[in-house]
Amino acid sequence: MTLKQLFMNAHEIDYEIYGEEMQYVEIELDPQEVVVAEAGSFMMMDSDIQMSTIFGDGSNQETGVLGKIFSAGKRMLTGESLFMTAYLNVGQGKKQVSFASPYPGKILPIDLSEKNGKFICQKDAFLCAAKGVSVGIEFSKKLGRGLFGGEGFIMQKLEGDGMAFVHAGGTLAKKELAAGEVLKVDTGCIVGFSQTVDYDIEFVGGIKNSIFGGEGLFFAKLQGPGTVYIQSLPFSRLAGRVLAMAPQTGKGDRGEGSILGGIGDLLDGDNRF
Question: What is the mean pLDDT of residues 124-133?
Fold first, then answer.
């Protein structure tokens, strides 16, 4: 991985991403630099990093009470917590703080200065960002997207000229769409896309597809120009598989691969009554 430094109105941060399947990002802060992160993403930090809870995303902390309430309100609309955590370097030299992926996948660094100041992503994809990056809701003017969007309906927008980090589940795919080029995607598999991409919800169509397809009634239609990031393992899909394999009786395992099923459980030497 390469170490990258960016100069912007938001706080300048250096970073390095470690790992393959379970990644974490290490942020290097100069004195008085700040990075903000979602609650629960913290992994480790140096002793001179000061951690504090802030109202909203930290982008309107100097605009008074109304600015803070507006910032927090945008986050509440996306289903996230009203609060975020800020990490400030109060020491004399460079210090590090690290944030981890919530489940297997990839951490995607987004340079907002290269995205014309705005990037649209799934509501649970945001991990952390330089202080000054605004995290809000991307309002839709299309009724179909609001009624049938499912996982992909409530989208977050990251605005500013700083560095932000989002998480993708499984393997990450990057698609560059030409003007007018269309990509159809499962709504849950969208990680994010540039603001020039047109996003809408489309009905799968066909009685057999709707009833027996097993893939949902709607998918996302993304039309270029712009960049689209796709994940192979949305968290909802991972959680669904885990729940499907969970014990239904509260006793124990499901007897994976055994033709004896429950009878075999009596003979496996690990019976906790």
Answer: 89
